[in-house]
TrEMBL record:
Entry superkingdom: Bacteria
Name of the featured protein: alanine--tRNA ligase
Species the sequence originates in: Candidatus Kaiserbacteria bacterium RIFCSPHIGHO2_02_FULL_49_11
PANTHER family on file: ALANINE--TRNA LIGASE, CYTOPLASMIC, ALANYL-TRNA SYNTHETASE
GO molecular function, one term: aminoacyl-tRNA deacylase activity
Length: 300
C-alpha cells in the first residue's frame, strides 16, 4: 500500500469516526484530525530519513579495511528506535550487509541490551503518564493549588478562543509556574494568548465560587463535561465548576483536585511583603509535538 493509499484510508477512518461520534463529542473534526495526521506522518518520514542517513554513515559507508571490527549492541539499536522511530528489525536489516562483510558484528548480548533499554523507556513513560493524571502537581501547597486552579480557567479560555478541539494533554505545576500542554494543530499567536490571559484575570476578578459535584463517569461524559484521561478515573468522578454570583460558569471540568474555594484567592499576594494583587500571565507558548502545544504561565 503506497503513502497516498494509506493517507486516503486513514482519512476514511477519521470521517467515519466523526460521523459516528459527533453527537457525543461536538468538537470532533475529521478535517483537523487529517491535518494533524498529515503533519505527524510527514514529520515521521523526515525524522526516519535522518536516522537512516546516520545508520548509513556509521555502519554502511565504513571501509572495513581501515578500522577494527566494531560491535553493534542493543543500546545502539534502541537509540535509533527511540530517536528516529526505526524498529529493531528494520535497523538490523539496514546493517545486515555490513555484518556479512565483516565490518561489524552483533553483540552477544544484543537482545538483552535492547530489551533492557526498552523496559527502562516504558517505565519512564509510565511515570510520566502517572504524573499527568495526577495533574502534575509538585505539591499540595497554597501557591501550587492556585496555579492548578488557574490552569482550569486557562483551559476554558483556550477552548473559548481556539475551539472545542482543545483538551488538556498534560501539565506540571509548581508553586512558581504552571506548564500546560493542550491539543491544537498550530502556533497560538500573542493576540489570542492575551485574550486567554484576560479571560483568566476576568474570572479571578469575578470571584467565582468552587462547586464540587460527584456523578457517574458516563453521566459526566454525556453531559459534555470537559476532561482528559477519562480511562484513569473511577466510575464516580468529581466535577469542579467555578461559577460567579451572576450565574456565569467560568470553568467546568473533571479533576481530582485540589482547587481554591473562590477564584479571588488567585489574586492574593503570594508574599506578605507586597500588597499588590497577582495577575495571571502567559509567559511562553511553544510546540511539544505535532498537534500539541505548551504554555508556561504564572501568577505574579
Amino acid at each position: 500500500m503506497g503513502e497516498e493509499s494509506i493517507e486516503e484510508y486513514v482519512g476514511l477512518i477519521f470521517d467515519s469516526f466523526e460521523k459516528q461520534y459527533k453527537n457525543v463529542y461536538p468538537g470532533l473534526s475529521s478535517t483537523k484530525a487529517k491535518e494533524v495526521y498529515a503533519k505527524e506522518f510527514s514529520g515521521f518520514h523526515e525524522n526516519a530519513k535522518k536516522g537512516f542517513a546516520e545508520i548509513f554513515k556509521r555502519y554502511v559507508a565504513t571501509d572495513a579495511s581501515s578500522i577494527p571490527k566494531g560491535i553493534i549492541n542493543g543500546k545502539d539499536a534502541f537509540y535509533y528506535f527511540s530517536t528516529f522511530g526505526i524498529p529493531r528489525e528494520t535497523f538490523l536489516d539496514s546493517v545486515r550487509d555490513s555484518i556479512k562483510l565483516g565490518s561489524f558484528e552483533l553483540s552477544s548480548s544484543f537482545d538483552i541490551e535492547y530489551r533492557t533499554k526498552y523496559e527502562e523507556h516504558q517505565k519512564a513513560s509510565r511515570l510520566g503518564a502517572e504524573q499527568k493524571f495526577k495533574g502534575g502537581l509538585a505539591d499540595g501547597g497554597a501557591e501550587t493549588t492556585k496555579l492548578h486552579t488557574a490552569t482550569h480557567l486557562m483551559l476554558a479560555g483556550l477552548r473559548k478562543h481556539l475551539g472545542n478541539h482543545v483538551h488538556q494533554a498534560g501539565s506540571n505545576v509548581t508553586a512558581e509556574r504552571a506548564r500546560f500542554d493542550f491539543t491544537h494543530p498550530e502556533k497560538v499567536g500573542r493576540e489570542t494568548l492575551d485574550k486567554v490571559e484576560q479571560y483568566v484575570n476576568d474570572a479571578i476578578a469575578a470571584g467565582a465560587e468552587r462547586i464540587l459535584e460527584e456523578m457517574p463517569k458516563e453521566e459526566a461524559k454525556a453531559a459534555g463535561i470537559e476532561g482528559s484521561f477519562w480511562e484513569k478515573y473511577p466510575d464516580v468522578v468529581s466535577v469542579y465548576t467555578f461559577k460567579d454570583t451572576n450565574g456565569t460558569v467560568w470553568s467546568q471540568e473533571l479533576c481530582g483536585g485540589p482547587h481554591v474555594l473562590n477564584t479571588r484567592e488567585l489574586g492574593e499576594p503570594s508574599s506578605p511583603s507586597t500588597s499588590l494583587r497577582a495577575k495571571f500571565k502567559i509567559l511562553k507558548e511553544e510546540a511539544v509535538s505535532a498537534g500539541v502545544r505548551r504554555v508556561k504561565a504564572a501568577l505574579a
